[in-house]
Amino acid sequence: MFHVPANGKDSRGSAPFAEPGAGVVQGHLLDFSDFDFANTILGTMMSKTKLTRSLCEVTLEDGTKEQAITYFGKDLSEDEHGFFIEHGNWQQDQDENKLSYKEVVDGLIGGKYKNIMVMTGAGISVSAGIPDFRSPKTGVYANLKEYDLPRPEAIFDIEYFVDKPEAFYKFMVNFDLTKHSATPTHYFIKMLHEKKLLFKNMTQNIDNLEEKTGIDMDMVIQAHGANRGAHCSKCKKKKDAEEMAAAIQKQEVLRCKECQGPVKPDITFFGEGLPAEFMEFMDPDMLKPVDLLIVMGTALAVGPFNQLPLLLKATVPKLLFNLDNTKDTGTVDFCTGANNLFVPGKCDETIAQLCKDVKWWDDFQKVLPDKHKETEEKK
To answer: Quick check: helix, strand or coil at residue 3?
Structure first.
């Protein structure tokens, strides 16, 4: 059995489970912020396996009871069983069995990992001079008071933009993403590709700094689009990006000649659908080759991007290189779980150290442009 809270909240009642091959799985969902997403994933598994579901009552840790939808799985494969175990609140992960940094380093040196998926957020571009979004004092959302928004995120909300595009156009005057250069962390991802170790770089970033490294952009999935084109927010027709940029500098909203809708850059706003090339990877089958996950510079606060770690096989090691753990902001607590590891620090610095530990320093230096080589050698 697999419990999904009927009210969409986390259900933390205890439940036993059977080992793979026993034919039965029993547990409950943990940290699914999107209830509909959870049911979509389970619905996909129902089409592949004999899963049934019914309404039941789950006892929480505080003794209270909660209505939940129970899934009962029979004759599951090892991978399918692993999906349930990954998303259950199990107590089988003992400290002595927890993933260690040394274990990851040894695995990279020994060639254990051949399909590394890298997930990146705004934190990897901070050293390029682009602020992240959620830092309390320096982030984008903390510095929008002058725009008189109903909430900070409204600056990137499609409904608000269509109604009041002036705020976004004013904001973009000082948010020119074209003038920045890729960071050492971006070049680390390129190096992984050159070593034929990169599965995909899944990025939330709209700055398009990945392309400036010279990486094959087929290896980069830009989940929230990229700032290199423009289109009408209403009729969706393509527009001239340079004309939009000029309008932004003049503080004049560029409108579509056909429907008068405000023109916006090709980035995904809240309320818009994500690119098809990203959504195809929301199928767990597409992620089966992944044998190591490296998450960098993100709070994992925005879905469905933040659901990707939950779709990987239970046995895949998952690393977070970030200033803070994502326990309170995202979908994964990298400080708990047998296969999770949190490496605190600035991305450029922790990645440089990883390259030294894995004996990749010379290769890393080769891929870095001169200005970053000087910076890294001084560390």
So the answer is: strand
